[in-house]
Amino acid sequence: MTISAAGGMIVAKGRTNRQGGRTMARKGIAGFRRSARADGRNVFFFWDDPSRLPADYKSNIKAMQALHPDWSVQLADDGIIAGLLARDHPEISEVYGDIRVPACRSDIARLAMLAAYGGWYLDADMSCREPLDSFGTDRPIVFRRDDTAGMKARFRTMNGILYMPPGHPLPHRMLAAVAAHIQDRRHLHDVLAFAGPKLLSDMVQETGVDDCEILSVKTHLRGRDPMFREIRGASSFSWRIQQCFGILPVAEPDWEVFPPQLRPEFVPIIKTFVAQFGLQAWLPELALRRPGYMRVEGFAELVRACGLQAYEQPVIGGRQASTTGG
């Protein structure tokens, strides 16, 4: 199902709404293409399955349309992006459906939309205080992470807010890099580098995009009365644990990238993720490599359900590991 924002309402595929005196229908990729503007006055959002879009995110998209009555504001789903990729980037389209991590598909989705039409991409949890018209539409706008000392010391950007004018080569170059990662099977446990903000940071630096306007995250997102504001959700950082199992199907997880400590909110994410992709068999090995995870409520039950009955005294590196050890 495709959902778009029009006239302050969420409009589902095949239904109609009135905007500016004319009837607007959303009919999959064809309707998405017709609604996209050629002048860069687009605001794109993405959610893999809009039927599960949180209510506050729906409200945010409605508010964005009300703030931009003369712009095209659209919410794309996996089906829309698969159609764009099949037309413009078939080498990515071939594996898009195999990408396990929704955040990674979202990274690719924003690049596909911006490469095809130009405009703004905002994460669904990102709201703005004023119309985006004030930024103009003539050059790329990238936001640099300068909100922490560590980020400020190196050049790092975010990709949750991003503007590309129509026809600009940067999103095309990034999609070419993603295609190379797929071909070479690189960064398959690293969402940030595969198609995310680290790739954007490196590409801006390496290609020397002179016409980019680099703006401050500290000012525009973290400052007093900022232009943008985040609506945090439980799924915001689910990719951090999902990526460890592999963005695409892999021989085995990258055990080294699993965090030393397991956040309690990651347990249901792991449960859903391994069930969806049939990865339960890896949980006993994960428990052996990260015994501290067994102290986190719910994880031990997941492991025991996979058949690790004798976990109480596993042997790791020639010694017995305690179930209360880290």
TrEMBL record:
InterPro entries attached to this UniProt entry: Glycosyltransferase_domain, GlycoTrfase_DXD_sugar-bd_CS, Nucleotide-diphossugar_trans
GO biological process: mannosyl-inositol phosphorylceramide biosynthetic process
Record-level GO cellular component terms: membrane
One Pfam family per UniProt: Gly_transf_sug
Name of the protein this chain belongs to: Mannosyltransferase
Gene Ontology terms, MF aspect: mannosyltransferase activity
Keyword Transferase carried by entry: yes
Superkingdom to which the source organism belongs: Bacteria
Keyword annotations: Transferase
Coiled coil regions in record: none
PANTHER family linked to this entry: INOSITOL PHOSPHOCERAMIDE MANNOSYLTRANSFERASE 1 (PTHR32385:SF15), MANNOSYL PHOSPHORYLINOSITOL CERAMIDE SYNTHASE (PTHR32385)
